[in-house]
Each structure stands twice: as C-alpha cells, then as structure tokens.
Design brief:
Layout: E1 5-9, H1 18-28, E2 35-39, E3 51-54, H2 67-77, E4 82-87, E5 91-92, H3 98-110, E6 115-117, E7 127-129, E8 135-138, E9 151-154, H4 155-161, H5 168-179, E10 186-189, E11 204-205, E12 209-210, E13 213-214, H6 218-224, H7 246-274
Parallel strand pairs: 1-2, 1-4, 2-3, 6-10
Antiparallel strand pairs: 4-9, 5-11, 6-9, 7-8, 8-10, 12-13
Helix pairs in contact: 5-7
C-alpha cells in the first residue's frame, strides 16, 4: 500500500475529463494501490481496479463555492497525512516511477520537508543544493514556489495556504507570497537527474484544457489509447483566445479587487510580523488559516 493519498482536484463541469484521466492512470500507474480522492461537487465516479473516493464537497447550483473552498473541503475529508496533488486534465503519458514517489513521501513524513514538486511546469527557481539525493531546495523568493502542478504535500501544510476567497491563479500568486514569508520547506526534483522528457518521475500532458477548451495535443494521446471524445462540445483552444479586450480586462480587475485587497492585507501583516520579535504582537498578525 502506498504511504500517501492522491487528490484529483476537479469540478463536475469537467466530468468529461474523468474517464480519459483514469483510463490513462490505470495504464501508466498500475502499481498505485492507495486511495484516490476525486474532488467532485455532487457526482459519483468509479473506474475498474481503482479505489476512487468521490468527495462530493456539496458545492453546486446556487450554493456554488469558490475553488479554494472546494479544495479546503476535500482536504478536510482526506484521512491521510501526505497528499499527491493532481488535476483532472493532467493526463498521464508515460509510466510513473512509483518507487521514487514512495521514497519522497517517506521523507516528507519523517523529515523537515513540506512540499516536493515533480515537474518543470512549477517554479523556474532559483534553487539550492540539498542534503536529499535527487532534490533541490526552492529559494524563498522563487516565483510559483507554491504551484497547482503535481506535487507531494504534507496535508496540514497545504491546508495552511488555502484561503476560501481565492481562485486557483490567486492561490498560486498570493500563496507564493505567503510561502516567501513562512518557514515551510519547498523542494523540487533535481532537473539534471530527472528530465522533462527523459527519466521523468510522473510524466503527464501539461494541462489538457485551457480556458474551458481542449488543447490540440490531447488528440494524439487519446487516439493512441482508443479514448473517444466529442471535441465539438468544448472546441479547441487557440492562442488568439488569450487576447482580452480592454473592457473585459477592467471588469476582471474590478471583480477581483476585493480578493486582492484581502490577500495583500494578510501578506502585509505576515511581512510585518516576520520582522517583529515580541510575541505579544502575535494576536494582531495571525493568518486567516482558521477562516
């Protein structure tokens, strides 16, 4: 039995990803025997040979919760102490090196390590050598030190970074700022040892859906494994769709302003408190962890 659980973070509107995700999972990770928590809102899902536990976080309809609130609910329902975070459109495309992940999960459990990233698609560094073979320590000032890409986490640490008001992009941006002020230990695999295309520990198609549409690259992967998808339902993402009108940009910034203010205020408090040694100030600068 593996010494960690897997959390596949998703939403019911991405249900069309679940069948291809778990078919590829069963092909490329056949020796994973632990629990897989699927962070659904209300729906059930199962796949032969896999221990999938639908979370059913209760969000949906008029009671639609934020992305972070759904994540917090899932983490609360996971009984294991170590979690491998994934998302429903991280489609595996090569055999996973289970023994290495098991080894690093044991390090997280027993040592002063809080998070280990497995992919180049997280932070670009800078990095520092570490005492752990195959790992680099991520500098506190590195962008995307906290990332939604696949990583092993101490569950209690991941929970400390989740803020109910944030969407995934805000979670990465402001969570990284929080991580620069707190004393958690973030690592990534040594990229000289574990490459992007060779000797990859967990090789998956980098984000199969962008802005609600399929990326063209999934077609060949799905065809190779006889996975049938009606691509017309979502359509395909094109880079022209990244362009945004000025009106929409302004509206988006105005809508996100309350979240930005709330998260930035907390970061200001954390930054100030990190410079204050007198513990009597602790009450005034505690974080929003128990929100």
């Amino acid at each position: 039995m593996n010494n960690y659980a897997i959390l596949v973070n998703t939403t019911d509107s991405f249900e069309d990803c679940w069948e291809p995700f778990f078919k590829l999972f069963s092909i490329y990770w056949p020796d994973y025997k632990g629990k897989i928590y699927l962070n659904t809102e209300s729906k059930e899902f199962s796949y032969p040979g896999l221990n999938i536990i639908p979370v059913r976080n209760g969000s949906g309809g008029a009671s639609k919760n934020t992305w972070s609130k759904c994540l917090a609910t899932a983490l609360h329902k996971i009984s294991e102490d170590i979690v491998l975070y994934m998302q429903e459109d991280y489609f595996l495309q090569d055999t996973v090196q289970t023994s290495i992940i098991d080894h690093y999960a044991a390090i997280i459990r027993n040592d002063n390590v809080d998070c280990i990233h497995f992919t180049y698609h997280s932070t670009p560094g800078p990095f520092a050598p570490s005492t752990y073979e195959g790992l680099w320590e991520i500098d506190k000032k590195a962008p995307y030190r906290l990332s939604c890409q696949t990583a092993l986490w101490k569950k209690k640490v991941l929970k400390q970074y989740v803020r109910n008001h944030e969407n995934p992009w805000q979670f990465e941006m402001y969570g990284t700022k929080r991580a620069s002020l707190l004393n958690h230990k973030f690592y990534t695999v040594n990229r000289d040892m574990y490459g992007l295309e060779e000797n990859t520990i967990i090789n998956y198609f980098f984000t199969g859906i962008v802005k609600g549409r399929w990326k063209q690259g999934v077609v060949d992967l799905f065809k190779k494994h006889n996975i049938t998808i009606d691509y017309q339902l979502r359509g395909f993402f094109t880079y022209e769709q990244k362009r945004e009108s000025l009106t929409r940009f302004i509206r988006r910034k105005l809508n996100s302003a309350p979240v930005a203010i709330k998260s930035r205020l907390e970061i200001f408090r954390l930054r100030y408190y990190s410079q204050v040694k007198d513990l009597k100030y602790h009450f005034w600068f505690r974080s929003f962890v128990d929100e």
